[in-house]
């Protein structure tokens, strides 16, 4: 009996020594590399945590990993989805890092400071949850720096000094076909305080008011005068009031690409894009009826440089995304499966 007790104490002492030295149970600091780019464990956990959050948004089941998800008409378990999306995120990280370096990209001091500051803000707001999942501030900063680099790739690839520059003529043509610029008045169709929608009779009155505004503008009346004259009547249909002192601020400016106009629905987007400069169209935006006078997109108020970054994104982001996906998948993978198993998604702690 004494021998057994001694043996048990000796075993406990050995286990305690191992724990104190940290030699036996130390977790890996990295999950390996892709394309020679090291993937720190904290960053891997963050990318996995993001993938888990995306999976959670796709199901109402409490067991996210065990749930069956439908993604682009494909059915797969939450576990497989998280694993797939995490690997894709790791590959994209490596693709961005390698391409950014190849193109000679650098972050300015201001860009670096902004990325770090944004990471610190995220950390302040979510420290407990992130810490519980093994994600530290250093990992957040690395992730935000990566996002900053990714944001500069469009310019490095397709900007005037880029490796595959898009000409000003191409950009100008694209903007003319895919952007809408105009001034407008919006007549409400919904009372946000009560979520009351105008009835059929009220809807017809809103249409009539919109047509009067259009006719007045075509006759040369100022937008602010039209706002002061007609918006009180439109708001009254929802038992609301409009202060005519706010007439000037009620006149809105629309400057948006087709991708943003899509939020209004295909019919409205197409009507706005098809309108010629000087034409006044009446369209629905979902919560309002808009009377919009379309203008030339580029002119004194808006220059090509004002829209260059936005237009490059509209033109080339999809192409760049595909290139990054292909690059990431084609890089040499030297990932440590045992390390990734140690950082399994089953260990994720939800809010």
What does this protein structure show overall?
It is a single chain. The protein is of the alpha+beta class and 351 residues long. The chain folds into 2 domains: 27-164 and 319-347, no CATH class; 172-295, Chitinase A, domain 3. The chain is built from 13 helices and 11 strands. Helix 3 (78-102) crosses helix 5 (137-158), helix 3 crosses helix 12 and helix 4 crosses helix 5 (137-158). It starts with a helix and ends in a 9-residue tail after the last helix.
* Biggest β-sheet description: 4 strands, antiparallel
Uncertain segments of ≥5 residues (pLDDT<50)?
Answer: 1-25
- Rg calculated over all Cα atoms: 28 Å
Shape field: globular
Strand arrangement within the widest β-sheet reads 8-5-10-9
One letter per element, helices H and strands E, the order comes to HEEHEEHHHHEEEHHHEHHEEHEH
What is the terminal-to-terminal distance?
Answer: 49 Å
The total strand number stands at 11
Strand content: 15-25%
How much is the average pLDDT? 92
Structural class, from secondary structure content? alpha+beta
Tally of structural domains: 2
Question: Helix coverage percent of residues?
Answer: 55-70%
Count of helix runs: 13
């Amino acid at each position: 009996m004494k021998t057994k007790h001694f043996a048990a104490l000796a075993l406990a002492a050995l286990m305690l020594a191992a724990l104190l030295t940290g030699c036996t149970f130390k977790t890996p600091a990295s999950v390996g590399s892709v394309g020679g780019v090291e993937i720190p464990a904290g960053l891997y956990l963050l990318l996995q945590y993001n993938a888990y959050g995306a999976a959670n948004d796709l199901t109402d089941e409490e067991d996210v990993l065990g749930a069956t998800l439908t993604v682009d008409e494909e059915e797969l378990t939450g576990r497989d989805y998280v694993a797939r999306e995490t690997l894709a995120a790791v590959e994209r990280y490596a693709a961005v890092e390698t391409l950014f370096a190849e193109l000679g990209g650098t972050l300015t001091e201001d860009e670096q400071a902004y990325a770090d500051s944004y990471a610190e803000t995220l950390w302040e707001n979510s420290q407990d949850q992130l810490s519980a999942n093994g994600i530290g501030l250093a990992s957040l900063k690395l992730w935000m720096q990566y996002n900053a680099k990714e944001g500069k790739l469009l310019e490095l690839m397709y900007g005037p000094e880029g490796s595959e520059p898009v000409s000003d003529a191409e950009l100008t043509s694209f903007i003319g076909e895919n952007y809408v610029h105009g001034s407008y008045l919006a007549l409400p169709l919904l009372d946000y305080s009560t979520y009351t929608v105008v009835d059929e009779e009220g809807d017809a009155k809103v249409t009539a008011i919109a047509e009067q505004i259009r006719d007045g503008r075509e006759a040369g009346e100022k937008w602010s005068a039209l706002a002061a004259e007609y918006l009180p009547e439109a708001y009254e249909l929802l038992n609301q009031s409009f202060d005519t002192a706010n007439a000037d601020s009620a006149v809105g400016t629309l400057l948006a690409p087709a991708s943003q106009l899509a939020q209004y629905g295909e019919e409205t987007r197409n009507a706005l894009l098809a309108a010629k400069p000087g034409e006044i169209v009446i369209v629905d935006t979902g919560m309002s009826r808009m009377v919009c006078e379309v203008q030339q997109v580029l002119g004194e108020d808006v220059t090509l440089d004002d829209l260059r970054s936005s237009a490059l994104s509209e033109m080339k982001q999809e192409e760049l995304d595909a290139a990054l996906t292909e690059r990431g998948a084609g890089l040499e993978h030297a990932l440590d499966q045992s390390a990734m198993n140690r950082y399994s998604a089953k260990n994720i702690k939800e809010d």
